[in-house]
Amino acid sequence: MTVHDAHCHFFSRRFFEALGREKYGAAGGATVDAVANELGWEAPGEPAALAARWVEELNRHRIARAGLIASVPGDEDSVAIAVAAHPDRFVGFFLVNPTASDGLEHARRAFATPGMRCACLFSSMHHYRLDDERVAALFEVAAAHRGAIFAHCGYLSIEARTKLGLPTMFDLRFGDPLALASTAARFPGVPVIIPHFGGGFFREALMAAAACPSIHFDTSSSNDWIKFVPNLTLADVFRRAIAVAGAHRILFGTDSSFFPRGWRKVIHGAQRAILEEIGIEDAARAMIFSGNFDRIFAA
Ligand SMILES: [Zn+2]
Questions:
Q1: Is the dihedral of CA 149, 150, 153, 159 positive or negative?
Q2: Cα dihedral: 12, 16, 22, 26 (round 10)
Q3: CA of 120 to the centre of ligand 1 (A)
Q4: Is the pTM of this model over 0.85?
């Protein structure tokens, strides 16, 4: 069966540099290698080399296409290099802060670049509401370019920051799926992806999806937010998400990010087993593992 991964992070040099600057200051001179070493991760090399590393990894696991996320604002060029080199394998996603003075301009430039298809919002990190007019302005840009929006909701933790002892100044109240739904409803032609089934705001994410047909979920990560809900299992989550949103609005993803760990096969194994367990039809399974991704990000 064809498998696409809707959620992989492209941890480029710029990503490591941003972390190094934050930890050691602009003049601290922490090199990419030093930060990678501290994390116990491979240094990424140049974007073209990192892209080749990813292609090799996807080949090894027979993954056809992947959404590749530029994971700090302003890093869309790194992913654009990867996408330009491997347009049949990668779809470009890029983190943008629509409340930053240059946020919209970055989004416009990125969406105008071939293969760059999805703007990613981390409102808890950048402290804005998802029903803010500046978010609507970003949706307008996405609509004009037939792009998509990815909006992280719910619980947020970033492994690299935790490992480096960087403060996480997140305000989780900003990750509200219902605020997202109120903006998404104004732009019915813009596909919206909420990762990790809403990351703990599962009920709200389901309500958002019920209210708003453009809202999709990705299944990525270990989804350990289920620990916030007594007795909830990931099988329950899949069952309920399929019942409310339908299999046509669920995209398989892993949240893979760094090497040497590479592609998170274990996530795929666990989720394949769950879909087996809950007995969904082959057609629905094919939508989740590749069809929905191909529909939103038609080559
Ligand atoms: Zn992620």
A1: negative
A2: -90
A3: 10
A4: yes
